[in-house]
Amino acid sequence: PEPIIAKNFFENIRISKPRYIRDQLLIIKEAIKDQTTDTIEKGLNFCIKNKLYSAADFKDAVKHYAKEQTRIVNDSNIEIKALSLTSMEKIKTKPQVRDILEYADIIKSNM
Fold first, then answer.
1. Domain of life here (predicted)?
2. Max Cα separation, the chain?
3. Domains of the chain, residue spans
């Protein structure tokens, strides 16, 4: 991440939560563990843009962007199978259509 943006974020946390700075930094440290630089940067930029200066908000933002990244990776691994001649024949199949009177008879017999 951009050092200036990160510094700005940390300074705002220190100003808004001076008594809890240690706890805030520990939460941030845990939030970035095993995350990509891109995910961390997106989370940081989101917090700065929306003036969210807490470790909990940062953690939530990072978690959101990590899920988004996972979804993109999973979507790219989906195998798309082309239709075969057999499946084309199945598409042409029409379901059996029954007369409505058959259903009416069933209802009448159960009354």
1. Bacteria
2. 79
3. 3-76
Among 59-63, 65-69, 85-89, the range scoring the smallest mean pLDDT is: 85-89
pLDDT digits (tens, 9 = 90+) for 12-46: 999 998 899 999 999 999 999 989 999 999 999 99
- CA–centroid distance for 13 within its chain: 26
User: d(Cα 33, Cα 15) in Å, to the nearest integer?
Assistant: 25
**pLDDT tops 90 at residue 77:** no
- Token look-up 């007369």 returns 99
Task: Provide Rg for the chain, Cα atoms.
Answer: 28
Structure tokens at 93: 């199949």
pTM of the model: 0.62
CB 36 within 8 A of CB 55: no
User: How many C-beta atoms surround the C-beta of residue 50 within 10 A?
Assistant: 10
Single out the residue of 73, 78, 39 nearest to residue 59, CA to CA. Answer: 39
